[in-house]
């Protein structure tokens, strides 16, 4: 068992938002990030402070809870195939440009495909993380030996730029690993084998930095900010991750519980 996995278990809970109360928390987080922080969507369209759309009823949702504070710091949803209309298009098909030379659907694949959506972390969580790091450094400089607080790396790219060793991204826990762990758990529970994702290119590089790469299938477009369509086969993605970054693989698959090697 890696240090990365140990930090993950001490720092985070993954909680399925399967009640109206938990869904409300997820919608509030989405409103804070999408409408207030990034302003991708007009806040005036959501007077109750809940960012909800027509795809939520055919989705499963997960919340990320930071154990030391008990607060919910992130959420992600998985838009499932429409059981009442199996040929119903996913948002990514309606709002991005998929290159037919890179990807084409078939009926057998569609019913096992879901779209990763509303993949987000509260901006406040990164600010609190920096404050905690400064507080820890001050305590250590004053002679304190309290090291019980889990160290979570929000952005491993930044750590490398600050002079960490080149393999620092493989040893630290990125919060985006935790979001992908939530995606994998929801996928396993709903018999999903393939993923769509309309992802910010910078975020895709960050996720890929941990070894969790999903292949682009079209150009970058302006859809809730800059987005590029991606498609991946879950088992193929996890197999590559197993070889490249075992610590991240342990976090994302829960020590292999949600992965079957072909």
Indicate the low-confidence ranges by residue numbers: 129-148, 155-171
| CATH class category | Alpha Beta
Order of helices and strands: HEHEEHHEHHHHEHEEEHH
Distance between the termini: 22 Å
Strand runs, count: 8
Cα radius of gyration in angstroms: 19 Å
Percent strand = 15-25%
Oligomer: single chain
Number of helices: 11
Q: What is the fold-level CATH name, i.e. the topology?
A: Aminopeptidase
CATH architecture: 3-Layer(aba) Sandwich
What count of structural domains? 1
- Give the overall shape, derived from the CA principal axes: globular
Average predicted local confidence, pLDDT: 83
Q: Helical percent range? A: 40-55%
Structural class: alpha+beta
User: Sheet bearing the most strands, described?
Assistant: 8 strands, mixed
Looking at CATH, the homologous superfamily is: Gcn5-related N-acetyltransferase (GNAT)
Detailed description of the structure:
With 262 residues, the protein is an alpha+beta fold. The protein has one domain: Aminopeptidase. The chain contains eleven helices and eight strands. The protein has helices spanning 3-11, 20-37, 91-95, 107-110, 123-141, 156-161, 168-171, 175-189, 201-209, 234-244, 246-253, and strands at 12-16, 59-66, 71-79, 113-121, 194-199, 215-216, 221-222, 226-233. Strands 1, 2, 3, 4, 5, 6, 7 and 8 form an eight-stranded mixed β-sheet that branches. Strand 2 and strand 3 form a beta hairpin. Helix 1 runs parallel beside helix 11 (246-253), helix 8 (175-189) packs across helix 11 and helix 10 crosses helix 11. The longest helix has 19 residues, at 123-141. It is globular. The two termini are 22 Å apart.
């Amino acid at each position: 068992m890696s240090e990365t996995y140990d930090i993950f278990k001490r720092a985070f809970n993954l909680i399925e938002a399967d009640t109206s109360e938990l869904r409300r928390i997820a919608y509030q987080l989405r409103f804070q990030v999408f409408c207030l922080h990034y302003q991708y969507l007009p806040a005036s369209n959501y007077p109750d402070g809940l960012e909800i759309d027509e795809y939520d009823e055919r989705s499963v949702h997960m919340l990320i809870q930071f154990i030391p504070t008990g607060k919910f710091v992130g959420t992600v949803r998985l838009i499932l195939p429409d059981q009442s209309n199996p040929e119903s298009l996913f948002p990514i098909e309606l709002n991005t440009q998929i290159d037919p030379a890179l990807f084409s659907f078939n009926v057998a694949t569609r019913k096992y495909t879901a779209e990763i959506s509303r993949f987000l972390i509260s901006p406040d969580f990164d600010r609190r993380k920096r404050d905690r790091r400064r507080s820890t450094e001050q305590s250590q400089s004053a002679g304190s030996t309290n090291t019980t607080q889990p160290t979570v790396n929000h952005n491993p790219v930044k750590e490398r730029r600050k002079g960490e060793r080149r393999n620092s991204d493989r040893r630290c826990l990125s919060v985006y690993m935790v979001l992908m762990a939530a995606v994998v758990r929801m996928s396993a529970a709903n018999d999903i084998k393939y993923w769509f994702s309309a992802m910010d290119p910078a975020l895709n590089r960050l996720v890929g930095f941990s070894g969790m790469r999903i292949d682009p299938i079209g150009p970058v477009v302006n859809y809730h900010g800059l987005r590029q369509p991606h498609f991946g086969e879950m088992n193929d993605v996890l197999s590559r991750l197993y070889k490249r970054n075992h610590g991240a693989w342990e976090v994302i698959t829960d020590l292999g519980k949600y992965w079957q090697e072909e």
